[in-house]
Design brief:
Protein name: Histidine kinase
Order of helices and strands: HHEEEEHEEEHHEHEEH
CATH superfamily: GAF domain
Low-confidence stretches: none
Structural class: alpha+beta
Radius of gyration: 16 Å
Number of strands: 10
């Protein structure tokens, strides 16, 4: 599964390193007691809804229960996802990390943020070509390939398009979530306030998370 995931997503990390992180994560999940986050603050959206206004929050929180049934099964699944978020944070000290699932919402396919740690951010990303032009999240879910940018200012200077949410972010990784049939069912997004943050060790933690997350996606 690890080798197949790396080949499919074009992610270069040593399999043995990932195996050790998967074992750590499984041990962590066996005793974790994390609580799901059913509502969270989100930023105001800019003109046309294409970007977030960083530092400007909407008065009303986003209710995940409006998009996913709040039942015992999903409560348990989201608890596991939040535990994975905490594991990634503890292992890497990343500044922002989130888990998104592809779901049909409001008449279109969107990425829905299920669990995260960090500054408030938008809860939904429409999966379409318009957003793919600047959003690493959407590029990742549509291509089913990893996106690793360890120097965002240089990436932009070289002509790369980039959706800026938090101007402090200097490095970002988006990895696809693949189900048992290797179909893309979502992504993870990790952001750091320093360049060259995503070393092989940190990337191995993120891949390990991807391999376990798909077991806990809500229905």
């Amino acid at each position: 599964m690890i080798s197949a995931y790396l080949d499919k997503t074009e992610t270069t990390v040593e399999s043995t390193l990932i195996e050790s992180k998967v074992a750590l994560l499984e041990s962590y999940l066996a005793t974790a007691d994390s609580q799901p986050v059913w509502s969270y603050q989100i930023p105001e959206l800019g003109e046309g809804g294409s970007c977030s206004l960083f530092g400007h929050l909407q008065d009303a929180p986003f209710l995940l229960s409006d998009k996913i049934s709040k039942n015992e099964i999903n409560e348990a699944l989201l608890s596991k996802l939040q535990a994975i978020v905490e594991f990634v944070y503890e292992q890497t000290s990343v500044d922002w990390f989130g888990i998104y699932q592809s779901r049909h919402i409001d008449g279109e396919e969107q990425l829905l943020k299920l669990a995260y740690r960090g500054a408030p951010s938008r809860p939904l990303f429409p999966i379409n070509e318009q957003f793919a032009a600047t959003s690493n999240n959407i590029q990742t879910v549509m291509s089913e390939k990893s996106r690793i940018i360890n120097d965002i200012p240089d990436y932009i200077a070289q002509g790369g398009e980039y959706y800026t949410c938090d101007p402090k972010v200097q490095a970002e990784v988006c990895l696809p979530l693949l189900d048992e049939n290797f179909g893309c069912v979502g992504i993870i997004d990790a952001e750091a306030f320093s360049k060259d943050f995503f070393t092989a060790d940190n990337l191995s933690v993120l891949v390990a998370a991807c391999l376990k997350i798909t077991h806990y996606l809500p229905r």
